[in-house]
Write a structure and sequence with these properties.
The complex is a heterodimer of chains A (290) and B (533). With 290 residues, chain A is mainly alpha-helical. Helix content of chain A is 70%, strand content 0%. In chain A, helix 2 crosses helix 3 and helix 9 runs parallel beside helix 10. Chain A is elongated, with a radius of gyration of 23 Å. Helix content of chain B is 33%, strand content 20%. Classes of the chains: A mainly alpha (290), B alpha+beta (533).
Chain lengths: 290, 533
Amino acid sequence: MSADVAPAPGVSTLRLQARRFRRNRLAMASVVVLALIVALCFLGPYAFPFTGEDADFDNISAPARLTWPHLFGTDDFGRDLLVRVLEGGQVSLTIGFLGALVAGVIGVLYGAVAGYAGGRTDGVMMRLVEVLYGFPYVILVILLSLLFGGGNVALFAAIVFTLWLTPAVIVRAQAQSLAQKEFVQAARAGGMTGPAIVVQHIVPNCVSTVIVYGSLLVPEVILSESFLSFLGIGIREPQASWGNLIQAGTAAMGSDLRLLLLPGGLLALVLLCLNFIADGLRDAFDPNDR
Amino acid sequence: MTGLRKGLGAWLAGAAMALALAAGPALADDTLDRGIGSEWSSLDPQVNFDAAAGWILADAYEGLVTFDPDGAIIPGAAERWEASADGKTYTFHLREGLKWSNGDPLVAQDFVNGVLRTLDPATVSEKGYYFYSTIKVKGAAALANGETTDPSVLGITAPDDRTLVIEMETPAPHILDLVGAFQFAPLHSPSFQAGGAGVFIDPAKVVSNGAYVIREVVPQSHVLLEKNPNYWDAANVKIPFVKYHVTEDVGTELKRYQAGEIDITYDIPLADLERLKAETPDEVRIFPSTFLIYYSFNLSNPDLANIDLRRALSLALDRDTLENRIVKGGATPTFSYGGGFDPDYDGPAIAEATMTQADREALAKELYAKAGYGPDNPLKLSIATTVAEVNIRRAQGAALMWKKVLGADVTVNSMERKAWLDLFYTDDWTIFADNLVGDFAGPETFLSYMRPSAEPGYDWVKPEYDAAMDAAAEQPDKSTRYPELAKAEKILLDDYIFAPIAIEPYRHLVKPNVRGFGTSAAGYHNSQWMALE
């Protein structure tokens, strides 16, 4: 880690920002913890001789004794709790990152086009966003899952469909001011086409906002997935996700808190890490905070 | 969607409870408070088809016979009866001096009028089939399907005010189970003709003949009954008032019970069952009902058309583990269809019932492989069930067992009750989490439902079974009829068109000061036998 405070000449803004981020200990610790959780979720289940969908009827509702093979015991169907939580993590994290990426890309492009084009096109595009904003979220998700026949695809579509709106609005505001900047006008005067300007000038100049917002979008998507699975319209049993594991855990809350604590604790930890990282990124990218 | 509905239901129940509390204490010691779950669908004795509302009506009306706390048939409005030698004609003799609650004399013709109204298509009652199908009363079918409106064709007649004769086309020893209040309530014609069906929910106009009369009907809240002084056995009715409370959510009902608002609950939440059994074993009452759970296989599915595969699926289920360690609802595992309800019936079970579970699983694996499935070619099926928690748990447990023992890939498809019912007739299912509630505690109510001619949804063609059931129907009494029914059940079970799973119990919490609450399999619990101490 570099100790010098004054930026050396010739260091790019991006490198400068990365250096500032690395100095944020909480954010760096969060990155390490998150990486560990991700590695554990994706590699951990291979260490066990069974999957989270295999039941061990001789050990139904086994308590957490930290003994092999059921380290954290089993659920009330005899399935290994730890493996199920890790497999649920795979689903939740994949949907979280992929969902945020797709929603982010759609939102950024939509917002950049609207902001750059301006005028009537901008008006129509943003009114559409407002109409979609006005639609009750849960009802929209239910309609979409009916349309797609339920399951993971429907859930993913529903989450992306509702979460691209906010990045679109944020980027559109940025793009609107960028469209008036001299370098954009110069590009236009030089004969660059609209789509090329959006992709080469507008979007790269929005990137810091997008990264900060994107890192906040990931926990939002994970939370949405968990929330919808909790309500029973997301990931279906026997496939695990943190949402439906937490739901099963709350049903047994009175008798066995373990079923709620493990998935709930991991979800809370991941959300905290992502928020600290987003916080660190925002500090690093903020030009007023040198 | 489910979660939201549940939440709303709980909230509504909570709101209703708050209202009930605000209305003031009605919890004096002279009132028995009973839970009935959801709101009664009807208080019309000829129309109501709902078991819980049937408790209210069994208190308010009395049939020819009635049922003691443990479900045994005892004389009701009729003091004695006799059957003809061929078992086709039953003659009932009413008690002397029977009265309606308003003091009018109760005569045999009132019972005939009740049946006539049940059968009249204009009444739109689902209970007509008791008289033309469950027992075959002469002329009942013609009246029910509108061929005639002439009441004289009916084989139920009243030669005088105290005699009632029932003539049937075939003998039916189970007739006595079907002449209680639920199926055979009398009709007070003057009040009905004056007010129509509305009189049954109007406490000022309703006239009944049971141990209690309806005093108050508050939708979504309660029905209050008061002791009927004109009842023939009024001297032995100990509790002056009975109040039936609506509570949609079982969890809320448990709280009301614990708060002392309810003396007998409608159900017990499964999540609290183990704890309650440990803490208050005397208050938890669990006993078998006539609610049979079985998983039907779709015979028109190319995979399931193979009997080896159906047999493998049935054998791979460890019913004991499923019911006692996964579902934990107190249900009794079963290997038969019509057995387990009437102790007099010595019916068959599936052929492998005597094996150990390990042997059954070994055989299941063998049959599964023989049917052409294996790790490279796993069977893919789906279980259609309702969204009720107990049903989902059972289906998930069964799917895990099929995966563990056979390696089959089975998913659980849960849906609202109505969608689930409709699905059955579309044929668009592979395994149906089926159930049947018997009309009485005997094998015949189940076995006659499975006749290929009676239930087209199963796609089961089996003339031998129909013939065996017809042969049984000729027998006038249980001792000769039951062996014939057992032969028919053997034919049914040998085809493995379903996997019998369990007999669901009734679950009630009963306050220790309530006396006289028995274990009736048919589910009749008349308040007149109970006392508060």
